Amino acid sequence: MAVFPTPRPLNRILLLSLVPVASWFIVRPLLEPVPQLPVLYTSLGFSIFAFLFTIYLVPSLGPTFINANLTGNDLLKTYSTLIPESMGLVCASVYIVTLTLFIPFAFSDALTTPVHSSATAEGITVSEFPHRQLAVYLSSLLSLLTATLLGFLDDVFDIRWRHKLPIPVIASIPLLMVYFAERGNTNVVVPLPLRSLFGTLVNLGPLYYLYMSLLSTFCTNSINILAGINGSEVSQALIIAVSVILNDLLYLPWPIGVRVPVHLLGNNTEIGFGGVWKAGMAFGSKELVERHLFSLYFMLPLVAVCAGFMYHNWYPARAFPGDTLCYMTGMAFAVVGIQAHFSKTLLLFFMPQIFNFILSCPQLFGLVPCPRHRVPRFDPATNLLHPSKAVFERPPSRLTTFILQIFSVLGLTVATPHPKTGLIHETTNLTILNFLLVRLGPMSEKRLVQVLMCVQVAGSVLAFFIRYGLAGLVYDGDRR
Amino acid sequence: MAVFPTPRPLNRILLLSLVPVASWFIVRPLLEPVPQLPVLYTSLGFSIFAFLFTIYLVPSLGPTFINANLTGNDLLKTYSTLIPESMGLVCASVYIVTLTLFIPFAFSDALTTPVHSSATAEGITVSEFPHRQLAVYLSSLLSLLTATLLGFLDDVFDIRWRHKLPIPVIASIPLLMVYFAERGNTNVVVPLPLRSLFGTLVNLGPLYYLYMSLLSTFCTNSINILAGINGSEVSQALIIAVSVILNDLLYLPWPIGVRVPVHLLGNNTEIGFGGVWKAGMAFGSKELVERHLFSLYFMLPLVAVCAGFMYHNWYPARAFPGDTLCYMTGMAFAVVGIQAHFSKTLLLFFMPQIFNFILSCPQLFGLVPCPRHRVPRFDPATNLLHPSKAVFERPPSRLTTFILQIFSVLGLTVATPHPKTGLIHETTNLTILNFLLVRLGPMSEKRLVQVLMCVQVAGSVLAFFIRYGLAGLVYDGDRR
C-alpha cells in the first residue's frame, strides 16, 4: 500500500473569498461603462480561477499520480515518502483549458456586444474579426499543448537528456508553420554600431526560423537544467513570468497620467504615461499595445498556475513538477517572446539561466564527468546542503584543466587536486545551485531556494536596467 | 528482463519504393502546369510519408513502450508475451505532425507562388489569405491534440469507463470555442415533412454546441467500446475514414466528364461530374468543394497512419492501440463532421457502432451485469472464440428480463434460464462481437475481425444508399 504525503492544508475561507473577486473581473467587462481594456479584466478573472483550480487539484490528484507509478523520491530529505511526480501536468492542463475558454472573450464581440454597436472601447474590440490574431493565438496554444504532451512523454518514457535536448524544437513547429504560412516578419533591427554595414533592417529569412526554434529550446531546457531542489523550477518560471508582466504593463495605455523619469536610468527619452494609445513605451503604437496585451493574456494565467503549484511544491515538497512543467513554462515564454516580438528582452530575464547554462557547458559537453544528478549533497545530520562533486575517473584533459582553473579563479567552482598526482581529481558540479553553496557556504534547502529566487529577482532588475537604460546606446526607438 | 514480441517483418524494398512516389506528389504542385487541386497532391504525398513513418516507428518504439510499463496481455492467445500497449500514440503523433507540417502548403501561397502572380489554379489558392480557414484548421488540430493527450492520460491513469465517457467533451472545447468566436452557423436544415412546423431552417443556438460535443463523445466512445480483438479498433477507423474519403470525392471538381446514374439509387437528380467547380454533388458550390477538401486533408493521413498501424495490430497483434487511438480517430471524425458540415452523413458510416452501442445499453446502464472485459471467450484447445457470458448474481429485474427476452427473440443474444428457478441466469455479453459469434457460430479471432470489417463495409454501402438514395425523400437540395 502506497504511503501518500500529507497534503499541505488549504485555507478554505481565504481561497473561497477569491471566487467573488474573480467573478467580478469576468462580469465587469459586460457591464456599462465598458472599461478601457475589458479583455484584460476577463484574463485576470480567469487567472484567479486558474489559481484556485491548481491549488485544489494538485493535492487531490496526487494519489492518482502515485497509483499510476508517477512518483519520485525526494533525494534531499531524511524521509523516503513517495512524492507524486509530473504534477506540472495539472498546471499545464489548467493553463491550457483556461487559455482555451478565454478564446471567445479575447477574439469575439459575440459576448460583449450582442446588439450591433459601432462605438466600442478603443483599441481592444476591433470592428473586423481578428482572424489573424486568432490564428496566432491558436498556433501558440498548439505549441503549448505539444510541449505539455512531450514533457509528459519525457516523464513517462524517461528520455535521456542528450536525446531530449532537441525535443522543444518539435513543440515549436506549429508556431513556426503558422508564422511561415502568414508570411511573418523575419526582419530584425540592426544595432546602431552595425548599421553602416547592414543597414537599419536585416531580413534573416530562414535563419529567423532557426532563431525561433532555438529560443524555445533554450527557454525549455534552461529551466529544466536549473532543477533539483524543492520549488526551484516553478519559482524561476514564476519570477520570469512576473517580470514579463511588469514589462508588458509599461506598454499599456494607462488612464492616469504620470511621467517616469527614465533619464535617471540613462535614457534620454522621458516616458509619459496616460491617455488611450498613449502608452509609455508604446508611444501611441496600437500594434505594440496589442502585442503586449497578447503577452499578458498568456502570462497572467501562467503566474496563477505557477503560484498555485508552488504552494504544494514549496519546501518540503508535497508534489514534484516533472519535466512537464519545464516544457510548458519554457514554451509559454518562447511563445510570448516570438509572437509579441520581444525575444531579446525576454532573454534578459533568463540571465541566471544563461549563467547556469554557460557554467554547465563543460559537463553538458562531456569535458567534465556528469553524474545522473547534479543536485547539492544533503547532510542528514545537519539538514544542510553542501556542494556536490563530480569525480574524475580518468585524468582531465588539458582543456578541462584550463577551464576548471579559470572557473576556480572566478570563484565558480572548487576543484580539488589529487594529493599524489596534483591533477584535478574532483570538482564541485557546475550548476548555479552548487555555485551558490560554494560562495555562501552550506545552507538548508529552503534557504537555498530563497537565495535562488533573490538571484532571479536581481537578474530581472538588472534586465530592466539594461533594457531601458543601456539599450538606448545600441538601439534607437525603431522597434519592429 | 522483458520479452519483446517479434516484430512483423517489413518488405523494405516495397516500402522504400514508396518514397519517390510520395516525393513526386509533394513536388508536383510546385511544377508548371500547376494541377487543378495542387494541395490535394501534397496531402497525398504527406500521407504516404505518414504511412511509412508509422509502419517503421511502431515496431521500433515497441521496446520503449514495454520498458515504460505500457504493456498489455493478449487475452485471446495461448502465449503470454507482453505486447506494447497505447501505441496509438505513435499513430497520433505521426498524424498530428503530418497535419502541422502541412499548414504552409494548405494555407499559404508562400511556397507555390514565390513571385507575385494573379492567375493561380482556380479555387484552391485564393488571392486573400484564408485566415478564417486557418483558424478552423488550427482549432481542429488543437482538438485532435487534446484528444491524443487525454487518450494517453486515460491509458496511463487507467480511468474507469464511467468517468471517461465525458472526456471527449473536453477535447471538443477548442473546436467549440473557435466555432463560437467565429460566430459559426448554428442553423440546421429541417426535413421536408417538418417544414410546415419549423420552416426551412431552424437556429439551434446553444443546442448546436451540445450536439457538436455529443458528436465527438459518440465518435470516440463508440469506437472505444467496439474493442477487444486484434485489429478491431483500427479497422473500424480505417473503413470509416475510407468511406468519408469516398463521400468527399463525390464533391470534387473532376476534370473528366462522366455522368453517374444516381436515379438508379432512387434519386431524381443526375450527377454530372466534370469541369472545374462543377463537381457532381457540389453543383458548382465553391464552399462545398472547400469543405470536402478540408475533410480530405484530415482523412487521407488518417487512413495512412491507420493502415500503417494495422499492419502491426493485425492478428496475431504485435502492438495494441490503447485508448489513444480511439480518442484520436474518434476526434478526427468529429472534426470533419463538424467543420465540413456533414455530421448526419458521418453518423451513417457509424451504423455498426450505433448498433453496438444500442445493444450494449443494458450493460452500460447497469441493467445487466457488466464484467470488466466483454471480449469473446477464447478456447485454447480449438483456437476458436465463443460468445462470452455475463452471469446474474441476483435475479434480474422485470425490465431486464423483458429486454433480454426481446433481444433473444431478435437473435441478438442467448439468455440461459436457471434450471431451477427458470429466471434468466446468464446471457451472452451484449456486444456486436458476441452477437456475430451467436449468429455465425464460433470462429477464430482472425476470422471474427474479418467478419467485423465486412459488416463495417456493408454498413458504409448502406449508408451511401441512404444518403444519396433515400435522403431525397426528406431533404431537398438545400444543404447548408
From TrEMBL, chains A, B:
Pfam families for this protein: Glycos_transf_4 (PF00953)
Topology within the bilayer: Multi-pass membrane protein
Catalytic activity: a di-trans,poly-cis-dolichyl phosphate + UDP-N-acetyl-alpha-D-glucosamine = an N-acetyl-alpha-D-glucosaminyl-diphospho-di-trans,poly-cis-dolichol + UMP
Any GO molecular function: UDP-N-acetylglucosamine-dolichyl-phosphate N-acetylglucosaminephosphotransferase activity
Top-level taxonomic group: Eukaryota
GO cellular component assignments: endoplasmic reticulum membrane
A GO biological-process term: dolichol-linked oligosaccharide biosynthetic process
Membrane-spanning intervals of the chain: 12-31, 43-66, 87-107, 134-153, 165-181, 208-227, 294-312, 348-368, 448-470
Pathway linked to the protein: Protein modification; protein glycosylation
Entry annotated with the keyword Glycosyltransferase: yes
Cofactors named for this entry: Mg(2+)
EC number: 2.7.8.15
Hydrolase is among the record's keywords: no
Compartment(s): Endoplasmic reticulum membrane
Assigned keywords, A-Z: Endoplasmic reticulum, Glycosyltransferase, Magnesium, Membrane, Metal-binding, Transferase, Transmembrane, Transmembrane helix
Class of enzymatic activity (EC top level): transferase
Family to which the UniProt record says this protein belongs: Belongs to the glycosyltransferase 4 family.
Role: UDP-N-acetylglucosamine--dolichyl-phosphate N-acetylglucosaminephosphotransferase that operates in the biosynthetic pathway of dolichol-linked oligosaccharides, the glycan precursors employed in protein asparagine (N)-glycosylation. The assembly of dolichol-linked oligosaccharides begins on the cytosolic side of the endoplasmic reticulum membrane and finishes in its lumen. The sequential addition of sugars to dolichol pyrophosphate produces dolichol-linked oligosaccharides containing fourteen sugars, including two GlcNAcs, nine mannoses and three glucoses.
Protein name: UDP-N-acetylglucosamine--dolichyl-phosphate N-acetylglucosaminephosphotransferase
Biological source species: Pleurotus ostreatus
Lineage: Eukaryota, Fungi, Dikarya, Basidiomycota, Agaricomycotina
Name of the encoding gene: ALG7
